[in-house]
Amino acid sequence: MILKYEKWIVLPQATDSEIATLGLGEVESTLLVHRGIYTEDDLDEFLSPTLSSVHDPFLLPDMSNSVDRLLQAVDSKEIVGVFGDFDTDGISGTALLTRGLENLGLKVFPYVPHRVDEGHGISLQSLDFFSSKGVTLLITVDCGVSSINEIQTAQDMGIDTIVTDHHTALDGMPHAIAIVNPSLPNSSYPFKYLTGVGTAFKVMQALYQRKKIELPDELYVYVTLGTISDVGLMRDENRYLVSKGMDVLRKSEFVSLDALIKVSNASKKNLSTQDMSFGIIPRINVAGRLDHAKLSLRLLLSSDKSEADRLAQELNEMNKKRQSLTEKAMQEAKKQIKDDFKNGVPSIIFAGKSNWIPGILGLIAGRLSEEYHRPAIVASGDGEMFRASARSIPEFNMIAALDLCRDSFERYGGHPMAAGFTIKKDRLRDFRKAMSSVADELLSGLDVEPKLTIEAEISPSWINSDSLSFLNALEPYGEQNEEPIFMTSNMNVVDAKRVGAFKNHLKLTMEHQGRIYDSIAFRQGDRIDQCKGSLDLAYKPEMNYWNGKYNLQFIVSDFRPA
């Protein structure tokens, strides 16, 4: 049997002493210990994050300069432009700054670029737009630290710029009024893992603090969207912000998100970070992937229910098209890379086709990287210039690797786990050769085979309303607080069938000690022949909400012969 993961690692269970100190059951205590929670005080802080996790915004670089300039704009009733990236982090940050500044009486023109026509970072097209609207102050979200020439152009046009970004500066710094970025070397901010929208939120926090005004709840919803989308570290301040934002979203009317929750078939009252990651956020991202991100921005800023419902439905239809395009491209990519796998999985995976739209390149790269546990680069282009998206694994710093090949690119940027670049066609062959050598060297001797971390081996009888409530209390899930995966040995296959529009998922009916459990294994449809007899199952238990009803369902991470 071919396993999805080469090795299953079951983490140690809590000791008797740890269980006694926490005063909970063995499984519950084990989950908490894995998260560094050993005392009741630790538990209280984790389950109910307090304002103590929210750090002084003025510890961020240039925050005072930023607030001073914004206060000047408020006092002088200047016209302000907001420029954000075209993903959910940038779109939600653009909405956050727009609403935050409008609440203070400013006239604000938000702008998100077209993925293909303008690309990442401030565009000259956007500067022409801002100039035509009389903008004298520009604020960026989730970008700007690399826009050296564009910010100089803005200055020449009489537009001051405040940069809010969390990306690493690669080639010097722009001459902006202020650069607010927690990742700068001179930053004394105690939490380095703010997202793009999180950094923009801190600017609004500082501004409202200076004006002695309470922050509007809607800003917490926007920061939650972007933080979950950008897979922000779910500890410290991020955990507080997302916890508060999710609470606001569950309990309050929020026209734009309510419309997306509806088309996603999620439950507003019990909305989870998984609902956000796999239901809401893909529908926000899809506009920028297939058309223009301004459609999603328009929805996030909408306060009209009929408009929000119409836009959400439009995004929902676009998302179905995106799923179809991605699935077709994935099948083409797998066929394409077969020759590269003749001598085993290579250190890095390359795939490309001229007609793959730029908006799905990152999705294909991510799927390839996840399936083969290797860094992956996927490109498309028709002519002399190609665009590429790269996704990586923890053992391989993608942006550092690309930096070693920087002379190959027209533009590039990103993070250790995700990056992108544009490259001339005649440089592709040499780049691929150089990047393969870099990957071979950096991954040499490392064990990079995929491993599945399992938090506890349990009997499914442990899963009841109390244990599910406990798992919900561990929300929000994310980086460094992943949703727990459990294992049950010797489950019997009662039925298995391929489901989904592309028949790429597995629907399993499993039996254990006389009880039946519905299970779903996403993107594992080609393993149906392995679903027979008795299996060990690695899974996440969830209450599936569909057509107004809840049913217990296991989300299967992997399975193997018992």
* Overall pLDDT: 95
The poorly predicted ranges are none
Radius of gyration: 24 Å
Helix segment tally: 18
Q: Count all strands and give the number.
A: 18
CATH architecture descriptor text of the largest domain: Alpha-Beta Complex
Strand order of the largest sheet: 3-2-4-5-6
CATH fold-level topology of the largest domain:
inorganic pyrophosphatase (n-terminal core)
Helix proportion: 40-55%
The backbone outline, from C-alpha atoms, is globular
What is the total domain count?
3
Gap between N and C termini:
12 Å
Supply the helix-strand structural class.
alpha/beta
Main pleated-sheet profile: 5 strands, parallel
Task: Determine and state the CATH class of the largest domain.
Answer: Alpha Beta
Structure description:
This protein is α/β, with parallel strands linked by helices. It has three domains: 7-45 and 451-561, OB fold (Dihydrolipoamide Acetyltransferase, E2P); 53-216, Alpha-Beta Complex (inorganic pyrophosphatase (n-terminal core)), CATH 3.90.1640.30; 337-443, Diaminopimelate Epimerase, Chain A, domain 1 (Roll), CATH 3.10.310. Helix content is 40%, strand content 21%. It has helices at residues 16-22, 26-34, 40-47, 63-76, 88-102, 124-132, 148-156, 196-210, 217-229, 236-251, 255-263, 273-290, 294-300, 305-336, 361-372, 398-404, 428-443, 465-473; strands at 7-10, 79-84, 107-111, 137-141, 160-164, 178-180, 349-352, 376-381, 385-391, 409-414, 418-424, 451-454, 456-457, 486-499, 505-512, 515-521, 534-546, 549-561. The strands form four sheets. Strands 3-2-4-5-6 form a five-stranded parallel beta sheet, with helices on both faces. The mean pLDDT is 95.
